[in-house]
Amino acid sequence: MPRTAIVGAGPCGLALLHAFEQARLDGIDVGEVVCFEKQSDWGGLWNYTWRTGLDAHGDPVHGSMYRYLWSNGPKECLEFADYTFDEHFGTPIPSFPPREVLYDYIVGRAKKSGVRESIRFDTAVRGVTFDAESATFAVTTESLENRCLSTDTFDHVVVASGHFSTPHMPEYPGFQSFPGRILHSHDFRDAAEFAGKDLLILGSSYSAEDIALQTFKYGAKSVTIAYRHAPMGFGWPEGITEVPALTHLDGRTAVFADGTSRDIDAVILCTGYQHHFPFIDPYLRLTTGNNLYPDGLYKGVVWAANPKLLYLGMQDQYYTFNMFDPQAFYARDVVLGRTALPDADQMAADIAAWRSKLDAVSGVMEQIDFQTDYVRDLLTLTDYASFDLDLVRQHFVTWEHDKDESITGYRNRSFSSPCTGTVGPAPHTPWWEEMDDSLSRFLKP
Ligand code: FAD
Ligand code: NA7
């Protein structure tokens, strides 16, 4: 039976372990499955760390999440179809939970499926090479506790190491001599640090949107967001403004493309992340920017150039856990030979068809439809539990409209579960006034 290595025990790695466990429960011999996780615990990005820079072992810190992070989409749009929020919490909860609540939910399913013993914690994957003769991978890992390297042979490798961890950090003229702090959103932890400050944020996507709101909510004096191509255009509270691209800093003065300028105390680069896989041999390595259908992956999962290598969760994400799950079930079936792959030409044609469909996509609503279609395609290929995908799509559309209506109020809205129909109750405190992001506070009736 096959030996399978999984890199990372975040939501994607845990989804795959769960998928293998479901097959095992059905009496299928899944072979040997080992998940290597460089952190001491599971949950990936949801496993919050105060650390920035290097971790306790001298590796780059994986975590990019920060205090006061509430889900940026409705929880009903990410619900596990085979482990609902109702099952986990035993009572309906509001639609936009803070990080600790979602972490609890992710871990709840992993505990229920009993997959912890398949994970080797504090173990970093340092090398993945393929031997064509034996058609196996040599996976080199480092035990971070004793610094021992060891190499094992596997038939399949599944990369689930995430792609929102290695920052993309552009430099602008004047950064070198700026007297304040310049940091990337990857290193942002506590909004309260910026209380009383005039802040400049670069970028116009999710991190820029949320960190602008967070810092202002927790006391920043002003927040200026400089966009490169187009403003986000939300109805920001007074004190947050969007301006055209930064041209340069002159001392602590930021100068923008329209000739205006502002004095600022700190800069937060919300400029995105790199897909970074230093542990994989270059010819096996996925090379892509952050988009909805990375090139080279059949069904968004199988590395077409060598189908014994698979990647999970490498797409830009509207859908998250309920996309990772069908990906994981599909990956499992490919590994176990329960799903036959077409020949190389057919895989290339399928990838090309999705990529050209993506090229024609314009605007947020079409992006949502594209990813919905992708998830729908995956669901037809797997025995993952069914859920009302059209309702999830509709929720995403409503959510986008809610944000346009009120960027500080959209997290007070309620959505219905695509699995159980349960409607999330309104939160006891409007999000804009809620300062405490703890699980106990959120679940308080
Ligand atoms: P990760 O969560 O990144 O997990 C990857 C795991 O791989 C980590 O545990 C890491 O330690 C491990 N790893 C990496 N390299 C190695 C190695 N060489 N050896 C061993 N282990 C390794 N999604 C939502 O649904 N809702 C949200 O509100 C939301 N907010 C977000 C906010 C921020 C700031 C960020 C950055 C992302 C957010 N996301 C959100 C998206 C997030 O990407 C997914 O929810 C999810 O965490 C992705 O899971 P993953 O398993 O692919 O990757
Ligand atoms: P994204 O969604 O990849 O967005 C990156 C943003 O950074 C995007 O708006 C880019 O501008 C902007 N960018 C990139 N390079 C530059 C430079 N050189 N100057 C100015 N702006 C730049 O990353 P996020 O961190 O926002 O979101 C990632 C995940 O974290 C997401 O899933 C969330 O849930 C949380 P562009 O739009 O291309 O003009």
UniProtKB/TrEMBL annotation:
<keyword id="KW-0521">NADP</keyword>
<keyword id="KW-0560">Oxidoreductase</keyword>
<dbReference type="GO" id="GO:0034899">
    <property type="term" value="F:trimethylamine monooxygenase activity"/>
</dbReference>
<dbReference type="GO" id="GO:0050660">
    <property type="term" value="F:flavin adenine dinucleotide binding"/>
</dbReference>
<protein>
    <recommendedName>
        <fullName>Trimethylamine monooxygenase</fullName>
        <ecNumber>1.14.13.148</ecNumber>
    </recommendedName>
</protein>
<dbReference type="InterPro" id="IPR020946">
    <property type="entry name" value="Flavin_mOase-like"/>
</dbReference>
<dbReference type="InterPro" id="IPR050346">
    <property type="entry name" value="FMO-like"/>
</dbReference>
<dbReference type="GO" id="GO:0004499">
    <property type="term" value="F:N,N-dimethylaniline monooxygenase activity"/>
</dbReference>
<dbReference type="Pfam" id="PF00743">
    <property type="entry name" value="FMO-like"/>
</dbReference>
<keyword id="KW-0503">Monooxygenase</keyword>
<comment type="similarity">
    <text>Belongs to the FAD-binding monooxygenase family.</text>
</comment>
<dbReference type="InterPro" id="IPR000960">
    <property type="entry name" value="Flavin_mOase"/>
</dbReference>
<keyword id="KW-0285">Flavoprotein</keyword>
<dbReference type="GO" id="GO:0050661">
    <property type="term" value="F:NADP binding"/>
</dbReference>
<keyword id="KW-0274">FAD</keyword>
<dbReference type="InterPro" id="IPR036188">
    <property type="entry name" value="FAD/NAD-bd_sf"/>
</dbReference>
<comment type="similarity">
    <text>Belongs to the FMO family.</text>
</comment>
